[in-house]
Design a protein that fits this description.
The chain contains five helices and 17 strands. The protein is α+β, with helices and mostly antiparallel strands and 316 residues long. The chain folds into two domains: 169 residues, Chitinase A, domain 3; 135 residues, Chitinase A, domain 3, CATH 3.10.50.40. The strands form four sheets. Strands 9, 12, 13, 14, 15, 16 and 17 form a seven-stranded antiparallel beta sheet that branches. Strands 3, 4, 5, 6, 7 and 8 form a six-stranded antiparallel beta sheet that branches. It has a two-stranded antiparallel ribbon with strand order 1-2. InterPro entries: PPIase_dom_sf, PPIase_FKBP_dom. One of its GO terms (molecular function) is peptidyl-prolyl cis-trans isomerase activity. Its EC number is 5.2.1.8.
């Protein structure tokens, strides 16, 4: 099983659930307690309580660090909302918001209790504590410790529930910014200026955009070189070649983990960070064939040359 299978399934289901709840909340006038939106909220709360009670009956058995046996109370097992449940706290260090959590998962079918996928023994996922994009999971992990086991259940349609047994096997505090030896700027590339907190801004270059990938270190970190297959954690800001900003993890105060070489990011990122050392800040200039090609992507026009400043904070 590819490492990204479980994470992508959770992300897709989360998006669908959030959208459905948002539509329900917007359906009424919001003016009184008996409005449609209030009724919908009460109904969702009642459903969540029932689903939470059902999830608490799922058994997770096995030694820490080993793939557990997950037993559903009955099959088919179904929930109607997105719920999480802390099965057992760990005896390791306390989990802190913003840490990189190394998490193993087993995905179980609610239809018949069969195992649909697993990251054990050597393909764990990486998530950010307190910012997993799954509020229910963040709540269950709040105050927990390394070694904690958590169940997450979600429905992607009628009688189609998946149950995830998750185990936090490590927690690492990530630096706030790249730190190392400054590298002299290269003529013809955008000029990068750093704020007091390390957030980058650029002055666009007046030269023609490069037609091949540029990966120019701005700060040389002292950590090990990034290898394909590792999960790296970065902070970044992205601009069009003309200096128009289109995305930044700095403005969201978040980090971004991804597996190098797994196709989770544009090719220019996979290639550009490979071989760079942890702690480095790298200027990536990504031509269209290494970015989004001839396709629009949100606010990014087709055939755009992209500029990124990427702080490589961790790799493991």
């Amino acid at each position: 099983m590819r490492r990204t299978t479980t994470a992508r399934a959770i992300a897709a289901a989360t998006t669908a659930l959030v959208l459905s709840l948002s539509l329900a909340a917007c359906s009424g006038d919001g003016g009184s307690d008996d409005s449609p939106s209030a009724d919908a909220s009460a109904s969702v709360s009642a459903a969540q309580a029932a689903d939470q009670a059902a999830l608490a009956k799922v058994k997770v058995e096995g030694e820490p660090g080993e793939e557990p046996k997950v037993t559903l109370p009955s099959t088919p097992f179904n929930v109607t909302t997105f719920v999480a449940h802390l099965v057992q706290d760990g005896d390791g260090a306390a989990i802190e918001d913003g840490q990189n959590l190394t998490v193993h998962m087993v995905m179980v079918s609610g239809t018949d209790g069969s195992t649909m996928g697993s990251t054990y023994p050597d393909s764990p996922e990486t998530v950010t504590a307190g910012a997993t994009s799954i509020a229910e999971l963040d709540k269950e992990l709040e105050g927990a410790h390394v070694g904690a086991r958590v169940l997450v259940a979600l429905s992607s349609g009628e009688n189609n529930t998946q149950v995830y047994a998750m185990e936090v096997v490590d927690a690492v505090t990530i630096p706030d910014r790249a730190e190392g030896e400054a590298v002299a700027p290269v003529e013809g590339l955008p000029t990068v200026t750093l704020g007091e907190d390390g957030a980058p801004s650029i002055t666009p270059s007046t030269a023609a955009a490069p037609t091949t990938l540029v990966a120019q270190p701005l700060i040389k970190g002292s950590g090990p070189a990034v290898e394909s297959g590792q999960t790296v954690t970065v902070k970044y800001t992205g601009w069009l070649w003309d200096g128009t900003e289109f995305d930044s993890s700095w403005s969201k105060d978040t980090t971004f983990p991804f597996q190098v070489g797994a196709g989770q990011v544009i090719p220019g990122w996979d290639t550009g960070v490979t071989g760079q050392t942890v702690g480095s800040q790298v200027l990536l200039v990504v031509p269209p064939d290494q970015g989004y090609g001839d396709q629009d992507n949100g606010t990014i026009p087709a055939n755009s040359t992209l500029v990124f400043v990427v702080d490589i904070l961790d790799a493991r």
